[in-house]
Amino acid sequence: MNGYHGRFLKVDLSTQKTEDMPLSEEDLKDFIGGAGLSAKLIYEHVKTGTDPLAPESPLVFAVGPFTGSTIPMVSRYSVCAISPLTGYWGEATSGGRFPVRLKGSGYDGIFITGKAQNPVYLLVRDGHAEIKDASTLWGKDSYETQEFIKNETGDQVSIACIAKAGENRLLYSCIMNDKGRAAGRSGMGAVMGSKNLKAVVVGGNAKTTAADPERLKELTLEAQTVIRSDMTAKGLTEYGTNMWMDMGMIMADVPAKYFTRSVFPASRLTSTAFRNAYAMGRYACTGCLIGCGREVKNFGPDKKSVDGPEYETVAAFGPLCWNFDLDSIIEANHLCNVHGLDTLSTGVSIAYAMYLAEKGVLTPEKAGLEIKWGDRETIIQLVKLIVNQEGIGKLLGLGTLRMAHELGRDEGEAAQVKGLEMPMHDARSFHGQAISYATGSRGACHQRGNYYEIDIAGMILEYGVMATNRFSAEEQKAVMAAKVQALKDTFDSLTMCKFASVSPTFLAQALSAVTGREYTPETLLEAGERSINIKRGISLKLGLTQAEDRLPEICATPLKEGSSADKVPDMKRLLKDYYEFRQWNLETGKPEKEKLEALGLHQVARDLYGT
Amino acid sequence: MKVKAIFYGILSEWVDEKEAEFELPEEATHGHLLKEIGLRFGSKMPERLWDRMKNDFCAPVLARTSTGTVQSGNSPLVENEQVTFLLMVGGG
């Protein structure tokens, strides 16, 4: 089977049983791999009322057909489950070396159910799996855990693990791998914690074949040339993802003071500001030509090298909290990495607490401390309280939607979609971004709906996607946003880094060369749509309603400053156009039966519409 | 010679035009075009985008012609050339 091993490892932690799980040719053709294939495998295990943290709830790690091949920037993996944060479909991705080693272990993914009686870790190497005791690891942080396991198993493995946040099933805890790489969003760490699974450890040198190795060689060279000559890629190499900070502020794209401001002293937080203040190192995932990752050297006597921070994190602990102190941003990011917290949900929840404190809701008496905008000590203290689930940290650890519920506040104040906190690209500055957030499979997601890139200067010729007025709902904006979402979803099925500036034509040719099946840009787009629709089917089973495809009021209230002043997305128009294109019902939010049948999602059609 | 500058994507918002035509001397270079862009639009663009002293974009802006990416200010232009300017910047 070209491009694949043709099997997942199936693990039942309750019975401690592991076995091969063969993959069908048809599923691989239709869902490709990664998150799309995971959704297909998870679908039948989801029932109305399924508890995301119940033993029977599956957790899936998956790579794609490109992983382990010569194509650059394909060391990515997806980790998927029902999200404990949102209660709906959840997924996160990460890079590093783990994905290549997962493929090298002889499997295309790992499908985990059950709950171990005591803490365990899973070791998968050279086609063999072992469930090993991790009692002594429980309570260790993510760096200690990785070091301990490497000492036990040898260096030639990669480790994806949880730390205190995941062990305590904190709703937005993440999974850390290869030191400071994070599968950050939607609480996948809590799902691991609920299974008493401390780590997944992978290694081995198993290879898959390519259907047309000569063509793959040509395409690899082509991709290398394209990526190396891409100016954005060069910028990412030079400055990291935080290159966005000052240009983003000019575009009013960087949210500030909990989504109520867009103008702030951005020059204090740029990559250059970081470089002037610290010795910065660079990190690249296996096979990456860019190396967007950053490390801060000699941050403190006991911190010789600290991973990150990336743009999203700088923005979340920075301007969103009205904080312009670099030390505290680095420290907050490091604490999140050490203890396994999503920096985005953490930063947004802290900023919400600051907003509530200003409104007199979270008084010092109620919060147990005085919460002030931009106070570096407060930010660090709140991160620690969240990690330890102490005091006000218990409330903040619930995420913004539950915080609003607990405090009896209007839901529209909670900066989230479907329970997932907003990323650091303001929906008012790019209205294609607004519809992407409102309809994202996992909630507010910039990874699969990074539409700002299109309206700055992007184009996808194959799909007729062009830059248009960023504040307009006209000119097919919602349709183009839907296509971009589908394409980016396919990146997570392939599992390929979204910073790889390759075209859909390239992706189709490469997938054809690897698998031997004929793909076109159109069939890739269809695969993205199929993936989005099956994820939608999962969330609908779990109770998702159409009303949840919306922006929270706090992120849709006109700003009074900056380049997006007085501009708000026309959500009614955007949603109408989006639904029409997707063939989703505007009242129920369900995909139309005909659409599901056309995508081959017959079981989803039966579940939603009966036989 | 006549040369057309196309401001793609968000650049058109700052310049307030999607495209503009320029009459340049024979044997004009890309540098000449930038100078004219500066004269006509420089004051409209934010400082972080346009360097008024150097008469050039200071943010990563790509200039493309029918033959490929413009490499420097000395690159020659030809009659009826269309130069597309794109802001190249990415976020996390």
Mean pLDDT of chain B: 92
Strand content of chain A: 5-15%
Strand order of the largest sheet of chain A: 2-1-6-3-4-5
CATH architecture of chain B: Roll
> In CATH, what is the class of chain B?
Alpha Beta
Shape of chain B: globular
What assembly state would you assign to the polypeptide chains in this entry?
heterodimer
How many β-strand stretches of chain A?
19
Q: Return the CATH architecture of the largest domain in chain A.
A: 4-Layer Sandwich
Quickly name the level 1 CATH class of the largest domain in chain A.
Alpha Beta
Number of helices of chain A: 25
Q: Outline of chain A, from the CA principal axes?
A: globular
Protein model, in words:
The complex is a heterodimer of chains A (611) and B (92). The two termini of chain A are 34 Å apart. In chain A, the strands form five sheets. In chain A, strands 2-1-6-3-4-5 form a six-stranded mixed β-sheet, sandwiched between helices. A six-stranded mixed β-sheet of chain A has the order 8-7-12-9-10-11, with helices on both faces. In chain A, strands 13-14-15 form a three-stranded antiparallel β-sheet, with helices on one face. The model of chain A has no long low-confidence stretch (mean pLDDT 97). Chain A has three domains: 7-203, 4-Layer Sandwich (Aldehyde Ferredoxin Oxidoreductase,  A, domain 1), CATH 3.60.9; 236-420, Aldehyde Ferredoxin Oxidoreductase Protein, subunit A, domain 2; 421-609, Aldehyde Ferredoxin Oxidoreductase Protein, subunit A, domain 3 (Orthogonal Bundle). Chain A is an alpha+beta fold. Chain B is an alpha+beta fold. Chain B has one domain: Ubiquitin-like (UB roll) (Roll). Chain B has helices at 11-15, 30-41; strands at 2-7, 19-23, 50-51, 56-57, 61-65, 68-69, 81-87. In chain B, strands 2-1-7-5-6 form a five-stranded mixed β-sheet. In chain B, strands 3-4 form a two-stranded antiparallel sheet. In chain B, β3 and β4 form a beta hairpin. The mean pLDDT of chain B is 92. The A-B interface holds A 229-232, 234-236, 241-244, 246-248, 250-251, 253, 292, 310-312, 424-425, 446, 450, 452-458, 467, 469-470, 499, 563 and B 8-11, 13, 46, 48-49, 59-60, 62, 69, 86-92.
